[in-house]
Design a protein that fits this description.
The complex is a heterotrimer of chains A (297), B (539) and C (489). Chain A has a single domain, classed as MetI-like (MetI-like fold), CATH 1.10.3720.10. Helix content of chain A is 69%, strand content 0%. Chain A is built from 14 helices and no strands. The longest helix of chain B is centred in the C-terminal third of the chain and has 26 residues. Chain B is globular and about 70 Å long. In chain B, the strands form four sheets. A six-stranded mixed β-sheet of chain B has the order 2-1-3-11-4-14. In chain B, strands 6-9-5-10 form a four-stranded mixed β-sheet. Chain B has two domains: 219 residues, 3-Layer(aba) Sandwich (D-Maltodextrin-Binding Protein, domain 2), CATH 3.40.190; 238 residues, D-Maltodextrin-Binding Protein, domain 2 (3-Layer(aba) Sandwich), CATH 3.40.190.10. Chain B is α/β, with parallel strands linked by helices and 539 residues long. Chain B is built from 22 helices and 14 strands. Chain C has two domains: 157 residues, no CATH class; 238 residues, MetI-like fold, CATH 1.10.3720.10. Chain C has a two-stranded antiparallel ribbon with strand order 1-2. Chain C has 20 helices and two strands. In chain C, 71% of the residues lie in helices and 1% in strands. Chain C is mainly α and 489 residues long. Chain C is flat and about 85 Å long. Classes of the chains: A mainly alpha (297), B alpha/beta (539), C mainly alpha (489). Chains in contact: A-B, A-C, B-C.
Chain lengths: 297, 539, 489
């Protein structure tokens, strides 16, 4: 499409497009930038600061990060999050992919009913109490499995994946079948690689869920050694709001409330930075093109 | 029962040997010295058990940088040594206490004991017993298994009156403060600013308005208030009756000579709202006040520089003083009481606590199901012996404190717990050796507090609290009915008040708003409370 | 219902053709339009746009009086239930040709609701006692419930029937029934199932883990719904607690919160559908038009960043930013806006909520469209260029149709969420000054359920909410299936 000569309105549109996107980037980035700069600023001056913040307020200060890092559980919670994220996402993808493949096959007697049964659960749930009892009765309270298994499949992701699989060209499947391929082979050798873009998106959705997950752990975990990072960070945020976080020899009594603010900013950065660092490496999958669409009747 | 002569005169009033204890309003403590007490008895045969027994206790997370788990508190370690009972902690994540409690109760995943439960059980204490979640003390009490608790109840009529339900059930182990520290919150004003502007201490409503105007003008400071907000935890107005007391109404419930009243439908309430409205319009109230949650509010507490008048908790004043003087060396505050609206008015409402605090620990029916109910009762009762109370109030003798020759306390925490050479203060370290809230016999003065705190308490205590609601109890049915009425009324009135104060709603509609409140069932609520109060007075 | 029923093999099965089909679709569309319009009108009449007027319950009163009710909150249940019934009616018409039973069901439901409204009106007057106001009140509900279950059963029966037919016809291929040998009997249901399983067992095996997940973690706990109908006490359990019938539903409809929370929920969603939903699509389209892979990637990465900020943090920041001295307020001040705290006035709440939502999810939500865009075959564009289509026409004729299925699926899901707004964000943002616009059904459920531990009541309210959402998604799906041939199931 680049071969075609561009007209004036197109150029105007293009220019507008660039300006708009740049503005959007600034808007998206600014709050994070604000927090990042604030987390490194001098706490006393920052405390009194109002309005925009473009550069850190000198002198630079890293004590906020040190304060957060002194928490003994930070390390273990990071490892826990990696466990939940790794094991959780892998299992999620495995089960979801198989389920989506099966449900996307046409001509299966039960598929229509199964799909209804599944969509039904998006709207009707038993609530927290029976859910908790289920975890408890299965002996999964306070275990890693108790965090992962109850969220093995996300219906939304399952539907998206199924839609994608349903859109894969039928001729590929048929020719594979003629070569004697089983469903298993067809799924993993044809559908899975063909749907790479969606697979990557869904995997990322799951991974982000695990990264941000704190609610179920807060209910099902007793042992603080099993806390994921987000649950711990949340506690730190609350703790620092209730004053005790900053009461350490590193901070003078006079500056506790200023440091509370600083710690808050540092926690935000710590909670956001790792996933941002990984993200650009995943992004290439989203550009690669494989049909994601829907069933055409 | 020995009397320690060195007790402050005010304390003597509280502990007066006459059978009838004075009204809570007379609990005034004039000084910071902690002295050895002999308030409770020591009637427990120790150890309680020779075989190892484990009791599961649910308690909120230790919100502290110096400790990760309750095991690290030496008081519990010592308790285990003395009683032979091991504690297994069940700890909900910070800020999820209510959800966790409700979930555990609903799924019957109970500990043996819930600590610091306030009114967490929906439907109240009576309902919790009726629903077979909490275990009533009565059989054990009657069988003499809780001698220390019984001693306290029999010796102090106030305690006896406050700890029993109207049905005669003893449903929980309440916290008793034998050194009344109330009131623990109230107002203060920047004295240095008053001096600078040669203003007198504000007394009347007009004084307040004037002072606020000057402060706003000269220092760009506003009045920091919190007026009850749903689900945000804590409310200044609900405790202190902010400016409502100036018009002789409480923020919610109060009683005048045994007659129940509900603040929001009283005429004075409108006047108070009008005053707040005019302050808001002039910018004398922090315009962001509506969006503060409890954390933001307490954070502002120490931000003393920008605040002219404020209500605050006693534990925070010391910290605030250090922070504020570091920023502004001239920082100086003086406690004041709420404004009065007419000549010769005697305020009758302020923040108040009773000897029996509104919180308790509850033994659950799990103890009974597992057949260790008697042991659990005896064990908990030990918390109410003098020794047990001392253990939780001061820690372990010789480790965290000791008594000097005058029976005054000498804190040793700085020698034994401060790992950072004097950098950590009492308020950071105390969770390592004593506990703060929970059901036990507590010396509520056993903290290291700034003199300023005592100045404040003494000033605030000058207001009698005779209109204050005593600790009435509702039956399970009443509780349900009351909740059905109160929940919508409370949120409706909170919301409407916000709209009136911020000027989003015209005052003309006030009468129809009050009428709506009556329509929503205020009278039924008053009747329920009145019955409960009558029963309480008849106890 | 299933795709199989529209599979090529099923052509002979008697699908309406030509004008009949067009007429059916037109009817469906009209019904949808009516439903949407009534939703909109309910909103418009409820909210007073006169910004000077005090925001209060007056909107409620207005409708109340207009429809004959007497006091606050008298009418909302009727309106809500009428909407639900309309939706159900639309669903049943749309459902299929021979949809006599569902039609009857929802028709009766409407009648029951009118009865219920009637009863309510007199109950308020406190003059009318039809045996006892409460009994009739309850009776209406039981009728409605019975109708709903009948409709559900009918739907299931229909689905089984149609898949059976589809299966049979796919076996017999395009052979017209007249061509079948004399005495041919269609296979029995049992035989069909057995054959299906023999043929497809590996696929069923692959579905098994997913199915097991749903059985254990979704259907296992689903019995908890029963507490919406009783006075749940833990010791007596889900089934042993004292039966309360529809008490909680009744109380909810009578409370002044029912209408307001429903209205706010709907309003936030309508705005979200109008602004929040197209935003990522437009963004994706614009991004797609950009050249320069690097710049594109930078824009993408940057716009995803806000998504990774956790909600607690986001709301903390937001409260700071829109305070009187906050960043947002300061910037708005440059453009002459007064420096107000945006979260202290009910009028601004929706804007703040929506803007922050778009800010946070714009980039992230565009992922799925971008991947769909990437899936459009370049040949299509080339063909369009050969045909002399400019950029605009390529957009209309190639790009948009290419991502329409994705948009449709997401739109269906979105419509299925029309009556729900997540509580977490609002709980973190709201305060008593802005309840008027900020309080939604889920925050109400949260308050009574989690904070007041009133489990039965909160389950009842959320069940009601789910019912509405479910009927909405069913209708949306059916309409979409009929109009665009893309559907959820």
């Amino acid at each position: 499409m680049s071969a075609i000569r561009t007209s004036a309105p197109e150029r105007a549109f293009s220019a507008f497009n660039y300006v708009f996107m740049t503005a959007l980037c600034v808007i998206c980035l600014y709050p994070i930038w604000h927090v990042l700069m604030a987390s490194m600023s001098d706490p006393t001056l920052m405390y009194a600061h109002q309005g925009l913040l473009i550069w850190p307020i000198w002198p630079l200060n890293t004590l906020g990060y040190k304060l957060v890092m002194t928490n003994r559980l930070i390390g273990s919670s990071f490892v826990n999050t990696l466990i939940y994220l790794g094991a959780g996402t892998t299992l999620n993808m495995f089960v979801t992919t198989m389920g989506a493949y099966g449900l996307s096959r046409k001509g299966l007697f039960w598929n229509g009913a199964l799909m209804k049964i599944i969509v039904f659960t998006m709207y009707f749930q038993g609530g927290l109490i029976p859910f908790y009892l289920m975890v408890k009765n299965m002996g999964l309270l306070n275990t890693h499995a108790g965090i992962i298994l109850p969220v093995l499949v996300s219906t939304w992701n399952l539907i998206v994946m199924r839609t994608t699989f349903a859109g894969v060209s039928e001729s590929l499947e048929e020719s594979a079948r003629l070569d004697g391929a089983s469903d298993w082979t067809i799924l993993w050798k044809i559908f899975f690689p063909l749907s790479q873009a969606t697979v990557a998106v869904i995997a990322l959705y799951y991974a982000v869920y695990w990264w941000n997950n704190w609610f179920n752990p807060s209910i099902f975990l007793q042992d603080r050694g099993k806390y994921p990072l987000q649950l711990l960070l949340r506690e730190i945020l609350i703790k620092n709001d209730t004053q005790s976080m900053t009461q350490s020899s590193m901070v003078s009594q006079e500056q506790t409330s200023q440091y509370r603010l600083l710690v808050k900013y540092c926690v935000i950065i710590i909670a956001t930075a790792p996933i941002l660092a990984v993200y650009p490496f995943l992004q290439k999958y989203f550009v690669k093109g494989v049909m994601i669409g829907s069933v055409k009747g | 029962m020995k009397r320690t002569l060195a007790l402050a005169l005010a304390l003597m009033l509280v502990l007066g040997s006459s059978a009838a204890l004075a009204a809570p309003s007379s609990q005034i403590v004039g000084e910071a010295t902690v002295r050895k007490q002999d308030y409770g008895a020591n009637l427990t045969q120790l150890p309680l058990t020779e075989e190892p027994v484990t009791i599961v206790v649910w308690k909120g997370s230790p919100n502290s940088v110096v400790m990760e788990s309750h095991d690290q508190c030496i008081a519990y370690e010592e308790l285990e040594k003395r009683t032979g009972v091991h504690i297994e902690w069940v700890v909900p994540p910070l800020n999820s206490e209510a959800d966790n409690f409700n979930l555990r109760v609903a799924s019957l995943d109970l500990p043996h004991m819930f600590v610091e439960v306030y009114d967490r059980y929906a439907g109240g204490l009576a309902k919790a017993v009726e629903d077979e979640i909490y275990l009533a003390l009565n059989p054990y009490y009657d069988a003499g298994l809780t001698p220390n608790y019984r001693y306290l109840r029999e010796t102090y009529p106030d305690i006896a009156q406050d700890t029993v339900l109207d049905s005669g059930e003893l449903a929980a182990f309440w916290q008793f403060d034998y050194v009344g520290s109330s009131p623990w919150s109230g107002f203060w004003v920047r004295q240095d600013w008053l001096d600078e502007q040669s203003l007198p201490l504000p007394v009347t409503v007009d004084d307040w308005t004037n002072t606020l105007r000057v402060f706003k003008d000269k220092y760009d400071a506003t009045l920091g208030i919190q007026i009850g907000d749903l689900g945000k935890g804590g409310g200044d107005a609900a405790d202190n009756h902010t400016v409502f007391s100036a018009y002789d109404v409480a923020y919610r419930w109060y009683q005048v000579d045994g007659q129940i009243k509900f603040g929001p439908v009283e005429p004075g309430f409108k006047q108070a709202v009008e005053l707040l409205r005019s302050w808001y319009a002039e910018g004398l109230i922090d315009p962001n006040y509506g969006t503060y949650d409890w954390n933001a509010y307490t954070a502002k507490t120490s931000d003393a520089v920008s605040y002219g008048l404020y209500g605050s908790n006693y534990g925070e004043i010391g910290q605030m003083k250090r922070t504020s003087t570091a920023i502004d060396p001239d920082w100086k505050i003086v406690p004041i009481n709420g404004p009065i609206s007419y000549e010769g008015q005697q305020l009758k409402l302020r923040q108040t606590d009773f000897i029996t605090r509104s919180q308790y620990d509850a033994i659950t029916t799990r103890a009974k199901d597992e057949g260790i109910d008697e042991l659990v009762m005896q064990w908990k009762d030990y918390w109410y012996s003098q020794d047990g109370g001392d253990l939780f109030s001061y820690g372990v003798e010789g480790v965290s404190y000791e008594w000097d020759e005058n029976n005054e306390i000498v804190w040793l925490y700085d020698q034994n717990f401060d790992t950072q050479d004097g950098a950590l203060d009492f308020w950071t370290l105390y969770p390592l050796f004593k506990i703060h809230n929970g059901g036990y016999l507590r010396d509520s003065a056993a903290y290291i507090m700034d003199d300023l705190v005592w100045d404040c308490i003494n000033e605030w205590a000058k207001i009698p609290s005779e209109w204050f609601m005593p600790m009435v109890s509702l039956t399970a049915q009443e509780s349900a009915d009351y909740a059905a009425l109160y929940t919508p009324i409370n949120s409706y009135t909170t919301e409407q008040m916000g709209l009136y104060i911020s000027g989003q709603q015209s005052m003309d509609s006030w009468d129809s708003y009050v009428e709506t409140l009556w329509d929503m069932g205020v009278q039924d609520m008053i009747d329920i409370q009145q019955d409960a109060l009558d029963r309480y007075n008849a106890r | 219902m299933t795709h199989a029923s529209r599979a090529p093999g099923a052509i002979g099965a008697g699908a309406p053709t030509g004008r009949a089909q067009v007429a059916a679709r037109a009817a469906m569309l009209a019904l949808c339009l009516i439903t949407a319009l009534s939703l909109f009108m309910v909103y418009v009449s409820a909210v007073e746009y006169k910004t000077d007027a005090p925001l209060s319950y007056t909107g409620l009163d207005m409708i109340g009086r207009a429809t004959g009710g007497k006091s606050n909150g008298a009418v909302h249940p009727m309106i809500i239930m009428l909407i639900a019934a309309c939706a159900a009616l639309a669903a049943s018409v749309v459902y299929n040709k021979g949809a006599f039973l569902p039609c009857l069901a929802s028709g009766t439901a409407v009648a029951a609701l009118l009865l219920f409204r009637f009863d309510m009106y007199f109950a308020e007057q406190r003059e009318f006692n039809f045996t006892s106001g409460m009994t009739t009140f309850g009776a209406g509900w039981y009728v409605a419930a019975a109708c709903m279950s009948a409709a559900l059963i009918a739907a299931v029966a229909h689905s089984v029937h149609s898949s059976k037919r589809a299966f049979a016809s796919s076996r017999s291929g395009a052979i017209p029934s007249s061509a079948l040998p004399e005495g041919y009997k269609p296979p029995s249901l049992g035989a069909i199932i057995a054959r299906d399983f023999r043929k497809h067992w590996p696929v069923y095996l692959m579905i098994l883990p997913t199915l097991a997940f749903y059985i254990v973690w979704c259907y296992g706990p689903i019995q908890g719904i029963v507490i919406a109908f009783n006075n749940f006490t833990p010791r007596k359990g889900f089934w042993g607690s004292e039966w309360a019938g529809l008490k909680w539903f009744r109380e909810f409809f009578r409370s002044p919160f029912a209408w307001r929370t429903a209205r706010n929920t709907l309003m936030i969603n309508v705005l979200n559908l109008l602004i929040g939903f197209p935003a990522p699509i437009i963004f994706a389209l614009m991004l797609n038009e950009m050249r320069g892979a690097l710049y594109k990637r930078v824009v993408q990465t940057v716009t995803y960043i806000p998504h990774f900020i956790s909600l607690v943090v986001l709301c903390g920041l937001l409260i700071d930013f829109v305070g009187t001295e906050g960043v947002v307020t300061t910037v708005m001040g440059w453009f002459g806006f007064p420096k107000n705290n945006l979260l202290a006035n009910a009028r601004y709440f929706r804007s703040v909520y929506l803007a922050s939502d778009i800010w946070q999810h714009l980039g992230w939500n565009s992922i799925i469209y971008l991947s769909a865009l990437a899936g459009i075959s370049p040949e299509l564009y080339e063909a369009a260029i050969i045909d002399g289509a400019g950029k605009t026409r390529q957009m209309w004729h190639v790009t948009l149709p290419g991502i329409t299925p994705t948009i449709t699926i997401l739109l269906i899901l979105q419509i299925g969420q029309m009556m729900s707004v997540g509580y977490e964000k609002i709980i973190l943002l709201y305060n008593s000054l802005i309840y008027e616009t900020a309080d939604v059904i889920s925050t109400y459920v949260y308050r009574i359920g989690i904070e007041n531990a009133d489990f039965s009541r909160s389950t009842a309210v959320s069940l009601f909410n789910s019912l509405i959402n479910f009927s909405l998604v069913v209708v949306a799906n059916r309409v979409s299936g009929a109009v665009s041939e893309t559907s959820l199931w």
